[in-house]
Amino acid sequence: MSESTGLSISHLTVKFGGLTALDDVFLDVAPNTIVGLIGPNGAGKTTIFNSISGLVTPASGEISIHGKKMKWPASHQLAEFGISRTLQGVGLFSGLTVLENVMMGADITSGSNFLKDLFGLSGKAEAKLRRRALDALAWAGALDMAEKMPGQLTYPETKRVSIARALISQPKILLLDEPAAGLGQDDIDKFAALLKQLKQRCAIIIVEHHVDFIGAISDQVYVLNFGKVISSGTFDTVKRDPAVLAAYLGTSAQSGSDALGGDHA
Amino acid sequence: MLKIENLVTKFGSVVALDGVSMTAHESKITTVIGANGAGKSTLLRTISGLEHPAQGAITWQGESIVGRRPEDIVRLGIAHVPEGHAVISELSVEENISMGSLFRRRKFKSDIAKAMDEMYQLFPRLQERRKQLAGTLSGGERQMLAISRALVSRPQLLLLDEPSLGLAPLVVEQIIDSVNTLCRTTGLTVLLVEQNANTALGVADHGVLLALGKVVADRPAAELKADENLRAAYLGY
Amino acid sequence: MSNLKAHSIARKSLIRTFLFTVVMLILGSRFDAYNQAQLALVLILFIGVLSVTILTGISGQLSLGQGALMAVGGYSTALMMINYKLSLWIAIPLSIISAGIAGLLLGVAAARLSGPYLAGTTLVIALAIPTLANRFMSVFKGDEGLPVDVGYPPAWFSNTFGEPSYEKWQIYVALPFAAIALFFASNILLSRSGRMWRAIRDNELAASLNGVNYSRQKIYVFIVSATFAGLSGALYGLRGLVGPSVYPVSLSLTLLTAAVLGGIRSISGAFIGTVIVVYLPDWIEKALGNFSLSEQVSNFLPALISSLLLILVVVINPAGVAGTRLHKHK
Amino acid sequence: MNTFLAALFSGTSRGAIFALVALGLVIVWRGAGIVNFAQMGQAMFSTYIASTLITNGNSYWVGFFVALFAGAAMGALLDILVMRPLSNKKKTELLSSDSMRAAVPVIASLGILGALQALAGILWAAEERGFPAPAKQEGFTFGSNVMPFTAFDLFVISLVALTLVITTLFFKKTGIGLAMRATALNQEVAKLSGIRTNRTRTLSWAISGAASSLAGLLITPTSNLSPNTLDLVLIVGFTAAVVGGLDSPAGAVLGGFILGMVISFVTFYDTPEDVFLSILAVLLLVLLIRPRGILGSKDVRRV
What is the ipTM of this complex? Predict the structure, then answer.
């Protein structure tokens, strides 16, 4: 584990009741790289994200961020650690305008506090935040949507907004949860270009089932199945791994270690 | 026969099914395969009335079923086993199964006990656990229970959504075998959605490959199994 | 919201407040005595309705116990005025603090509860708090209550502006507080805190992932809402009596009705709703002036109609009268 | 000792009624995800109907059964006219957040409560009136002692016990009961099993309406009848349901008896004025230790 590691996880095990959702998982993400997590449904990809973002409590395992060993963060502390996450269902605030949604992404760093807000003295901080939000929207190609409500956007547009919201806090590590889901091929291509640019600024981890897309943009790919990392490396090496082929196409090259009737979340 | 023509289903502005046309033939197993997010589950949910299509036609035995409610579609002989061992954990095994036959009580009262017995013969493990709550079952048993819940309504068409999800290969094999036997002996029509392509194509007569909401291949299963398209759809090469 | 500059939030709120104050003063000077008293009541309840707007409309927490917080404000003011002979201008701000503390306690409990659990718990609180009046008879004087009112203006006021009628003096007492409440509410809604609270309302999980400590923010919301309710309750008691009968459970429901009818997510909605609730009996009386109704009917007709309106608004357009703009897109 | 017995008997009889109210709330909560604050308004209204019938010379039992029917009909109507249209509105922006989706039906039910109370005021005036009991309200005599237990108490307890047994059997043993439980637990699977979920949900409202009307009929002989008398019963019943666990019928019964005993013992050993403070104390205590109630299921946070 070198100093330059953006994020590193080892021996991560998560249990839901009696089920082992993640079993001794490791993950290393270097700065300015894109790491893709793939695997069949229910393999445990999102559970890794949930562990990093404080939504589930791991049974065991270690996490280091920027080379420093940490406690597993609580969800509202992510921003402090320089981590941003998008949600699978996009997770925009339906009652806030697009601009306000993006501003939410950096609210806690805006330097305002409750008393300033109460007396109407946070205008300066708000204006600054607003400019940053507009910049982020512009970068994501969603500037003209600023005053709309999320309900008025098309799906690809909401994706752009959620990326803008994740970026406004200038994270060092960006977690993207199925960003390509529901997008057409055109939008996927545009999105891939966007992510390659983004890589200059931070490390990106992507959970995705669109393997094509992952292959095109990732520097490293981890393949999960039944809560375990079954293969990792560049996409080209991974896709030649028989274990991966088996996991995806279901040839019975599987380890078979799972007890009859055992299942995985 | 179930015939689907140019079916489009949207979630808000997301197009999940983009003009799907296909057919499930009488007394055959048709499998719909494809990577996650290809629209397989949406297809089944649209057939069973859980989702409303934006356009397109679904005809069952020559009759259009678009726009009907799920509870009415079941009555037409189409039973749907949704993804993820859809049973009700707080109810007992027996209650879960008999739930599927409630609507037949008036007309076919005498048949219900028989239908339940058949389920227990099909999956003897469920009989041992008759009085247990469904929540205490293993994943494989829950999947068997979900299938029994659907079959007890004596459907002519079974929509089966990813029975292999999260299950160990041996269990998957056992479940798929049961369904296969049932189809071959009773003439049940099966529309099987699977991520596990090799297993599904192994039992199916016909295979339909979906990618991004569109049909990319529609061929006899054996042919499809050898097709390069298949690997490309899953792994992108 | 466009073109925000430094300190423009305070400026915008000040302009709103100023316009509001001027319009109220003009209306107050034109109205007859009865309508002046009604206007004073509108101003007082407006503050209480704002407490519901902030709590339910903005942050998505349903409380049926705002009346109890009003009682806290009312009793604190009355006790300070009677026992320590404090002027209402000192007693009211101090009583807001006690309401705020009550809000803090409630907020700590509320941070753990949601939906119907919170609604029901606050309802029980609304019921239990007034019974303290009988429990501590010597202090709160039981069902009889504590008589207090706005009194008469100080000499310097009468000398400068002339002697106002009692009703007009009620307006002069309520208006500064309503204006201050409006100013603060407007500031909060225009700034980061309001946005954070709306975010919590819309999606707790996403808010948390964006760094919002929602348990803590919910407590803030309760404190702010409680101070508004306490202020409203203090002024409400100064209409003559502070006692358990003045702050019944139904008072909480009246505030909620007003907030929903007007539009539960905006300040203007709060004001519109308050006007509807206060004036509805008068309008009904006017509309039915030609029919001779028995007292039995006329007593209950306003309540019936406002309840039916509430149901209709909820079923047809839950965003309320002022909420149509927010509501039009899908 | 006599005070203790008196408190115990009175607690049992009250507890039985609170259990009924709580059960009504739980049935609708499980069936539709709504806490119906109008429930005792419906009960009040149907008790008035019974009262009117009885004053006009009909027998107690005519009034009794008409009231049960009226309660059921009101429950069903409420679902069809208000709650079902509201749940079909889920896609509007205001109702797109969980918090508002939970709050708005509660507000609607409060509107219904207000409307029913005002209407009762218009139709029957606001003065309290008595409501007859079908059994004697003097204590049984035991030798020369008058026991703190009346024939009416016995009637209440046995009727509630009977109701609880019948509803339990109905839910456990009948097909409709199974359909209702399935709808409450997982609507999608219920629909796919051919259950007409809209109908079963309306049925939950009807059963809940009848149960609460029964509670109204049983409590008014000792508390009198006015448009607002049952408000407190609702609040205690709600507390009972929360204490027991809103999603658990057995919890409702347990909570009902706990609250009945607390109220009774506070009244007998302390002062009636402390009743609401003690209810509040019980509620807060339970919510702090078990936020989902004693027998409630755990809340699982999902992503």
Answer: 0.85
